[in-house]
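Q: Could you write out the predicted structure for this multi-component system? I'm mainly interested in how the pieces pack against one another.
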Amino acid sequence: MAEVEKPRERCRTGIDALDSILYGGIPRSNTILLTGSCGTGKTSLALEFLIRGAIEGDRSMFVSVTETTDKLLANVIRYDFLDKKLIAEAKMVLIDLPVIYERLGLDKAELTMEEVSLLVASILNVVRELGIKRLVIDSITSIGYKLKTQEKIRDFILRLSKGLSALGCTSMLVSEVQPGTQAYSTFMVEEALADGIILMGNMERRGDLLRTLQVIKMRGTTHSRAKYVLDLTQAGVLLVPLLKGGSVNL
Amino acid sequence: MSPSLETIGIPALDRHLGGGVPKGFTILVVGRPGAGTEFLAKQFASTGDAQTTYFTTTERDQDIISVMKQHGWKTSIKIFNIGVKYYETILEKRLEISKYRQEGLRYEDIKKHKSDEIAHEINYLTSLAYEISKLPTPFRVVVDSLDFFLENYEASEVLSALRTIKAHTQHSESLSLITLLKNVHEPRVQSSIEDMADMIIELERETVQHEVKKFLIIQKFRNNPGLVGSMPCIFGPSGIQLQS
């Protein structure tokens, strides 16, 4: 028996092709995993999601774990549509997680369970305070290395996604995986807990290294599961369906 | 005094040792709290020809100098106050951390310092070894006390720093004196430290018929086990004196 569900409100990523893959966008308040090996365009896609959101009036926050946000601003973000005023007016906020670590004295190599909840509470605090509607954490894998055990990583993601969802914040957790792996995450728990998984990869075809994107799972919406070829341009992420012909080695 | 020997600061002890302690020695002074290890450290610091550098983790500079003056000792020592620096930086930091933990972080708290401004916590163990390595040689060094480092850093790191200090002391024919509380640290750590020391002096007291008797015990003397033994001593107006 088919239940009639009220369609979930969407958070349009602003990346047109991705929004059509998702039939309108990410269901609002979802926490999704953006996963792939290095150089597949995860950070670029996540940043575009935030900038497009900020332009539309969704206050956005980027939480950087490994790279400093200064460096990110200086070298990484080259989008034509990024108006520096968005950052100056704090419509898009960039914070460095190491600063939070430092403020809270979380400088040990491994955090305790209590410190994990402290860390979650601090991130949620800022999200609530600023009324953040879109959040990116780059990367959840780096945080995972500090949490060490699967229990703590599970606890971290569960508390965080629950809290973010309650605040109506749509979030992307960037996950780093080894090239060639079958898994969608490093610690295995991330993929099970996320409301959605977008897989980004590299694919060699006729000597070209193509970037690909595929939506593996997305709670609250139907979506295409086809593989798309992704192009990173100054005008943003462009996606075209991967043409199957020609991929066969002759 | 033979050119290869240095005074320890207690003339009768120098005589007992055949003129003094060999240059290059690392001396460990152990005792229970109140045994007088810090007192011996100051007496040692005020003697010899080399410049003394006094690393303290517990006392204020003026207290050290005032004890030395009281006993008429030379006060031309350089004091490196790790305790004060530690309290100024680390404890202040801890206070701030507990405030953030209690009251929660706000955006302002994160924004006001950018990541590259994160103050690096000073590792006082590294700075101890570094400061000693920079001293003009030969030197006379006092570290009072090693307990501070064992409380705040991994034992293996402390041992490694100690090894560096010892090697440098030996190589430059200097003298180092290090104080340590007795029966506080893990036996394994304590043994490793004792193993490293060239000489171990223990200060001990004993109550015999309501009378407190104090002893200076030589627990170890490298290459001369014959010197190991216990001597009664008094803490007089001019310092520690042995009673024969």
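A: Regarding packing and overall arrangement: Chain A touches chain B at residues 68-70, 93, 95-96, 98-100, 102-105, 107, 118, 121-122, 125-126, 129-130 (CB under 8 Å).
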